[in-house]
Structures
1.
Amino acid sequence: MNLVPWSLWLLIASPVCAILAVFFFVRPRKPQWSHWPILGSCALVCLAATDLTSRVYAGMVLDVPVAIWMLGGDWYLPFGFRVDGLGTAVLLMVAWVGALIQVYASGYMKHDPGFSRFVLLFHLFYLAMIGLLVSNNFVQLYLFWELVGVCSYFLIGFWYQKESARRAALQAFLANRVGDFGLMLAVLLLMAMTHGNTSFSSVFRLLPAAPTEMVTLAAFLVFWAATAKSAQFPLYFWLPDAMEGPTPVSALMHAATMVTAGIFLLVRAWPLISSIELLPQLIGWVGAATAIGAGLVACAKTDLKRVLAYSTVSHLGIMAFALGFGETAPAVFHLLTHGFFKAVLFLCVGNIAHALGKASVGVDETGGLAAKMPLTFGCFTAAALSLAGLWPFAGFYSKDSILDAAFHQGGLQAAAGVAIAFLSSFYIFRMLFLSFLGPRREQRGPGHAHEGEPVLGIPVFFLSLGAVGAGWLSGPLSRLLASGWMLRTGMSPVPDWTWNGLFASQACALAGVGAAYFLTTLRPQWDWDWRRRFPRVERLLESDFGWKPTVAAFSALVVEAAGMFSRGWDTRLWDGLVESTADWAKRGGERAASLATGQLNDYLWWMLAGTTGLLYLVLR
Amino acid sequence: MTLSIWGVSVLLFLAGLAMVVLRRQLLAMLLGLELMINSVNIALVYTGSLWADAEALSAALLILAIAAAEVVVGLSLILKLNGAGAPVDSSGLSELKG
Amino acid sequence: MNSAAFPVAVLAPHLALGLGLFAALLAGMGRVGERPLRVLVVAALGAALALVWAWHRTQTGGPLIRSDEFSWLGQLLCYGGAIPLALVLSGGDISAALLLGSALGMGLLAVSGNLLMLFIGLQFMSLPGYVLVSRQGRPRSYEGAVKYFFAGGTASALFLMGLALHYADTRSLALEAGSGVLSEAGLALMGAAALFKIGCVPMHFWLPDVYESSSPELAGFFSTSMKAAGFLLLMRLVALGPDSALAGSLPALGALTMIFGAILALRQQGLQRLFAYSSISHAGNLILGVGAWAAQGARAAGAAPVFFYLAVYLLMSNGVFQFLRASSAVSRGDLRGLGQRDPSQAAAASALLLSLAGIPPTGGFLAKFLIFWELVKAGLYGALAVAGLATLVSLGYYLGLVRDMVFEEGDRLDRARQASLSRSLVWVCAAGALMLGLGPSLVSALARALGGGG
């Protein structure tokens, strides 16, 4: 136990204590002070995360069981920590981004009547995510995974008085539940494989000797669960609607943390995933399709947060695309940089919404904000440049390593890479130019908009520093990730950039910027014109290439089928059976004419049927 | 001999079962129930005396007593229903459904 | 194994219940109010629980008695499940006597070592149940009672026939395994009676009607104590023949029951009927657990997941039905907006519903997880798939109820009765369900208890 550093205990203890303190002491008396213990806890968590990262960088790898819940016999739930390169890399990003967003949230949500509840739920989510990242076995990871899902349900539906928010929350929960069920089955399979001990080290050690069907099934189920959580096709549809939650929720969950949990799980379980022949390639193709599809849809959205939502889906697709090449380090690298620049983008949109006094903003309500909100404009631009992957911003380094691998493969993958680079640059700069330059004829213009209080501005500023500079740390990151990597063949480090790749990616990105500039500033009405001229295209994009109506129809079909089945059982099947027996009895000479139409006798018939069935099994 | 006694027992059991399942009048259903229970008694008494097993014989007695208790409960329920004025027909008992 | 001496230790709880029953009837001669009767019943049940706990290590065998781990654990479950009903009992001395009588019957069932004793226990616990349903004073109580009576009577008669067949094969009425077709047929018939009591499809039709025509707290008693007793009976029978057709059919029956109960619950608007079908679905889950246990040889130590599930279900189901009593809600529409009218009750009820749905970190999730784990160990993957599907379907109505309470608007109908005891009970049950999920020491205690005695 004395091997466990103080920072690890602090990492877990401070959020727990803060939550308990706020719930029991602060909330009843002074709910408007709820954020102070929480922010203190955030600071401690950041401190602890930084300390752990530096230790791991210096070579420490920790995999300790802390407690075992003996359930008796051969059932037990292990509880332990694993602190290695992968965990601490993501932990560091989550800790800092999460802390800064919580600072932002304490200003953004200050006047909301549910402020105290929000702060508590948000911090609980933070704790759950941290727990997920430092778990050392699959069962514990699954428990925290579930907890993350439950928190997201409550946070998306935070403004539950709104019907749309409630529906979005339920949709998110159900989509995640379908994935979570897959993860539970996978965990059960792994438990069967390892006779109860699902810690990562033991699972991966026993992998070669296990039956292939079991391993294959488990790997596919893990991928399925990651698909739901990280919003890949086909289970991505909950993410755009999850924008109903408050902006800090979107920023933390749907940019930096919850959605990356799926990618994190894939990388954590990479020895399992990569042991299956075609699974990495499948992940790559799904990722590419998601990235391009979502990117196209993002180009046409008018609500600012929805553009970012689809952008998140697209970037998660890019991470999956990277995994398809076996490039785990670039995928993690992009996960980290994405956390920064996407958070900045969301918070800037939050600032715009705050300035205009609304909850969510469409492009029709913006325009010309650059002069009125310079800080937001600056941070947005920095993050946009990073997202587009332009040198020397952070996104360049992470995206470029992925695109490099794509161009190296050539063929379809290279084409996908080109499309991705162009599209992501296009949609983000379209958004930037439409909102901050202008205003155009169809837009309302900035009106009385102005920068918010410092508490809304400072976190954004610091996060944008990360969005700019995080990319320069690719070397240290590779070294960090290598420590504690569990695949025997070693971890592929983040590759250095090549001139060819550089040219190709920069050309595509700049082309995207140029196209966006052309279509929004030099031809300012284009964004509204094409909708009038090509309504079918707009409908197609609006329905996510027809996937949304398919999902709606499918779920309606399932509900209808269930209803039909139960109705049919009650009336048609059951009555019919009874009536045919009635005929027989009349023929047999029984007195009762209207035989067994009373409910009780039907019940007894069924009892008889069941008993006869059992007897038949015996005498067979 | 054994087979015929058992045959009678099973036959009576099935007859009682048929009465319970097929008849609508509650009193008739109750009779069927009693028939079922007592048909088992026949088998028990016969087999018990065949093997001189006191256990089976005393079981038969106990079962008689319990069957009597059951009849009391059943009759009182039926009478209570009848007391409401409605004829005791099981097809009338169909308000609880679904 | 002192069979000569009267097994006082084993039968002490029953004596306590019998004395309580007698006292209740005596008290009825005078003019005694509701509260003293409730105290009497709770005291009798509590004494029985204490006596079971004090002397549970006594291993008395004998011609009619079998006192092993199943018997004392079963008694704890049955008596414990009756306590919420006892606390809010109405209906005078007769209802008190009936409740104690039913509990006594369950206790006799639990310590039976003989088929005849099993039958006696079965009848003893069922007959008061029929009468209790008829005394509820709700519209259609008599209809429910009559249906329960006839269906239950048929089941008992089937049990008897099974007893006779088994006897014909093994020449003894003791709870011993037999060989040959006759005894297996007998086992199947007796098992059918047990499955009826549990509410297994296709012998479940009585259950929704009976639950709907009872008061909520009585339905809670049926869904917990009676079910526990039924499962005890089933497990005793399965232990006699783990390879029999009865045991082999359990996975299929359990899966069918689970999915059937879930689908039918989905379309219910009446809350008591909804929870009746939910009860059926949970029974299906337990049947799967028993089936998996049988498939692995039906050793005593392996039954811990089933007992744990019964214990958690005891808390969950009683809590939910007490909630129905406290809130006087009849249909789903009545629950809309409860979160704003009565936030503490809504929170406790939501916790119970989440536990019933099997969402971590509640006790309900852990119980389901252990059963699923057993299914994997037994190799019953098909049943596991159906169970998972049924759980997903059940999410529809459990989460729907939570959504109705917490997220919907409702009119400010102030229909809540003065039911403060029920309200507290809801909280106690919810807290218990949560704690069992967070600190699963109960599971280890059960495993130790079951594994130690052998």
2.
Amino acid sequence: MTADMTSIKVPKALRDELNELANQAGRGTTLADVLTRLLEEHKTTRLRQRLAFEELLARAKADPDAVARAERITQGAIEHLRRPQAS
Amino acid sequence: MNAGYVLDDVTIGELGRGDLVVANLVAALDEHAVRMSVPAIALAVAQHTLSEAQADAVHGMIHRLEHVRLEPIASTEDVLRLSAVSVQLTEQQDMAAAHTVAVARYLGFPILAADLKRWEPVRALVPWELDIYEISG
């Protein structure tokens, strides 16, 4: 591999954990491979979470009754924030 | 806007279970730049009744909406603020309410509640006035 390589400083315990994952993944697995895989898993989780919320939001926005009710509550909620505070 | 709301465990749970009004509400508040705080313990308790997929939707909201933030217990000051409230509730252990109230007091935000009745026992025990806005209508 001729990609630009760099080194990062991590506590030894963290490096040992990453080494353990590399060992479990089999011969030839580098720490770079482990980190790449962990990042992929992280991105997948985040994407799954965002998609779940976006699907819910799409259903919500497609429901005119839910939209109308939420608009009323939003106005009330914002007015509630604007009222003068008793000190 | 520097003002906002603290979401309670029932509201978070309703969102996770797919309440379309709550979903539209948080999205609309976010569009109006109203901050929303999700206390970590309220979230944890809400998740007791949510499936993994439902919890995903709540976590997705936290990551997707610009003005929604998870409020963790991250410092000894956070612990002190939580403890100052939870000690009032020892008669009726309610750590979700304690964290919600602690965050509300710290941020100066009202609590956004899907069900006001959830707060009646807490109101009876704490020595402070709780500013709670009920999602109704």
